[in-house]
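Hey,

Quick one before I head out. I ran the complex with iron/sulfur cluster overnight. Inputs first:
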Amino acid sequence: MGKEWCRFGTQDSTGLGIKLEQVTWGSWHPHKVKLAVSGCPRNCAEATIKDLGVVCVESGYELHVGGNGGIKIRATDFLCKVNTEQEVVEHCCAYLQLYREEARYLERTAPWIERVGLTHVRERIVEDAAGRKALCTRFLESQKYSQTDPWAERAAGKQADEYLPLEPATRPELVS
Ligand code: SF4
């Protein structure tokens, strides 16, 4: 829950989780993607079995990738440590874009990383700053066309006819 809500929290993990959701929701991927942010190494959000997990520490943010829960459990691989929330967001977007560009359809991040190797992912996301920024830019560009909020559209009146009362309810003479 992070330092806003828990005495063990090291960073505002809840706020960071909201930021990651705001930047990533609506994005399409080869398979489902799960993210989590834990406020300290006690790891209550179980970030180390997620496709991308952030573990907040006193000195920054540890990024973990390729985890999986469920039947075939796989602990994440440690990707790198960064110092700011902005770096977390950039690494997250770049990592998701690399996954989208290179993974096979219906391949979760866990088998994808096992297939291509963690070294490959590190080379593209951690060691190649320019490449990381380019991947992040492509992700954010595509998000401009992916984040259409159906609830906001309906609240604004789109397809309001779907919610009109049924005819018998508006014409009592039809109801016996
Ligand atoms: S991971 Fe658990 S112990 Fe650590 S800050 Fe979050 S809720 Fe608190």
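The mean pLDDT is 94.

Talk tomorrow,
K.
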